[in-house]
Amino acid sequence: MLFNIQRYSTHDGPGIRTVVFLKGCSLGCRWCQNPESRAREHDVLFDERLCLAGCELCPQAAPHAISRIDDALVIAREKLMADDMVTLTDCCPTQALSVCGETQSVDAIMQKVLRDKPFYDRSGGGITLSGGEPFMQPEIAEQLLRRSKEAGIHTAVESCLHVPWKYIEPSIEHLDLLLADLKHVDAKRFKQWTDGSAERVMDNFRKLAARNVEMTIRVPLIPDFNADEQSIRAISNFAADELGVKAIHFLPYHTLGINKYKLLNLPYLAAQQPLDAPELLEFAQQYASQKGMTAWIRG
């Protein structure tokens, strides 16, 4: 199950890359910019601004779950079934209602990846698995990485590492670069903001470091969560002292994904304004550099 394949990306690893976005994530980060990626199943997004008054195509396609009340479309998402997603895909002429998620075979995905191999060869690019959490679909991740390596394509994965180790291990021998989130090392704050276990993530980091996996750590800096000097020190210390990581990226919080929550009829529980803290970003870069890491601020 995936929700996008993005070609010609230059932000998800070296060179020109094809990014395969797999659905499913075991975390519930308050600030998640891709909430449509969390569920392993299809999601329905609805933008009432695009909905045509009086149109009955969607209610006719799924009458047990979609209806009109006083000319407003009402969607009972909990009643939608897998067959409805097939019927609703491309049903809406204005894309007011859209279905996120589709199943594709490894063969079909690899056909799209191999299409751009000349660009990878010239630029040092390749394939990047992203999400959601790619290792939530461990067999698919392993197959895509293995077949890419067999084709001479550089491989990378963007991961939060919040999965059992047995989901990660089969892919390691086919992985050239891991771009991994290190959100916090404080267990209580991590649990409060992500509904997950910091120790699971940190333990996976330790195991990967012991296997000499090339890693770049990514730190999303989130107001009230980890956008403070104490948290940055703790994260940088773990990355440098325990893992021996050489590269770290700090990602200032932004709000570009807020509208997606409205489309999914979900509450947004993080800050309403982007992070505006140039002095803190300068501190993060300087402190990480002092710890022997190459540090970047990524917008």
Keywords for this structure?
two-stranded antiparallel sheet, alpha/beta, Alpha-Beta Plaits, 33% helix, 299 residues, TIM Barrel, 2 domains, eight-stranded mixed sheet
Explain what the structure shows.
This protein is an alpha/beta fold and 299 residues long. The chain folds into 2 domains: 2-38 and 103-297, Alpha-Beta Barrel (TIM Barrel); 43-100, Alpha-Beta Plaits (2-Layer Sandwich), CATH 3.30.70.20. It contains 11 helices and 12 strands. The strands form 3 sheets. The protein has an 8-stranded mixed beta sheet with strand order 1-2-7-8-9-10-11-12. Helix 3 packs parallel to helix 5 (138-150) and helix 9 packs parallel to helix 11 (278-290). The longest helix is centred in the last third of the chain and has 14 residues, at 229-242. The model has no long low-confidence stretch (mean pLDDT 96). One of its GO terms (molecular function) is 4 iron, 4 sulfur cluster binding. Pfam families: Fer4_12, Radical_SAM. Residues 11-291 form the Radical SAM core domain.
Summarize the entry for a quick read.
With 299 residues, the chain is α/β, with parallel strands linked by helices.
